């Protein structure tokens, strides 16, 4: 039995060409499906989402004596492209595939499709895999942050705290952040105790103060105090620091 191409056209999704092979296997034109689902770079989308695409040589539509190489997808890869699409219309495309395209193939004869409930199960399974992948990525980010906190030991510098906020999408810097901490009562405002934690800041466990001695000149020894943000403080300020400051 010679391979046959059928065309299905919808005003929303355009043309989708389908190849029915001699053994009854049905393949879908990869470029048509990717274009219908709104992928700008159809070749890249197929390479990224699909696993079992194949090339087939088919008669040229304008000249049956000529042959044309086309790339086709099995049913499983069709669903993977649907799942990977970011367009809201992907749901409508899925419905069109199930309600129009596949029944049309069955009506034409020679196409034995898996039971719709099996196809739906595959579709749902792929969605679950994508959801789990996203959850694992989020968990990996949290674990990375936790490891950063562990490495920080007693705390991080104010500059590092400002960069953590920047990494979280907050537009701020060290000077601006510390000014906000003073206004909110986390740091002292007097010149003598500038940038030293207030009693409130210490009671909340947000800071530690490192003390060291240094000699600016012979015979003179001074005490240097450096405020650092504890792991608890880092999590606290990432939560309460405003995303936008007036």
TrEMBL record:
Boundaries of every Bro-N domain copy: 2-109
GO molecular function annotation: DNA binding
A Pfam family it matches: ANT
Entry-linked InterPro entries: Ant_C (IPR005039), BRO_N_domain (IPR003497)
PANTHER family assigned: BRO FAMILY PROTEIN, DNA-BINDING PROTEIN-RELATED-RELATED
Protein's name according to its UniProt entry: Phage repressor protein/antirepressor Ant
């Amino acid at each position: 039995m010679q391979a046959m191409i059928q065309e299905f056209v919808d005003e929303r999704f355009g043309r989708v060409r389908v190849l029915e092979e001699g053994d009854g296997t049905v393949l879908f034109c990869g470029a048509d499906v990717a274009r219908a689902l709104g992928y700008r770079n159809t070749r890249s989308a197929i390479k990224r989402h699909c696993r079992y695409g194949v090339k087939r040589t088919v008669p040229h539509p304008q000249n049956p004596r000529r042959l044309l190489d086309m790339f086709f997808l099995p049913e499983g890869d069709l669903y993977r492209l649907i799942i990977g699409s970011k367009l809201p219309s992907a749901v409508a495309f899925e419905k069109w595939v199930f309600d129009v395209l596949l029944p049309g193939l069955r009506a034409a004869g020679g196409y034995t499709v898996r039971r719709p409930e099996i196809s739906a199960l595959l579709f749902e399974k792929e969605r679950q895999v994508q959801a789990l992948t996203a959850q694992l990525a989020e968990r990996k980010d949290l674990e990375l942050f936790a490891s950063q906190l562990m490495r920080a030991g007693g705390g991080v510098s104010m500059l590092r705290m400002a960069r953590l906020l920047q990494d979280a999408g907050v537009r701020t810097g060290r000077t601006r952040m510390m000014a906000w901490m003073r206004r909110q009562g986390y740091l002292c405002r007097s010149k003598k105790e500038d940038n030293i934690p207030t009693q409130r800041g210490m009671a909340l466990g947000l800071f530690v103060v490192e003390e060291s001695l240094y000699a600016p000149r012979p015979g003179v020894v001074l005490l240097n105090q450096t405020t650092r943000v504890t792991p608890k403080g880092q999590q606290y300020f990432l939560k309460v620091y405003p995303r936008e400051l007036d």
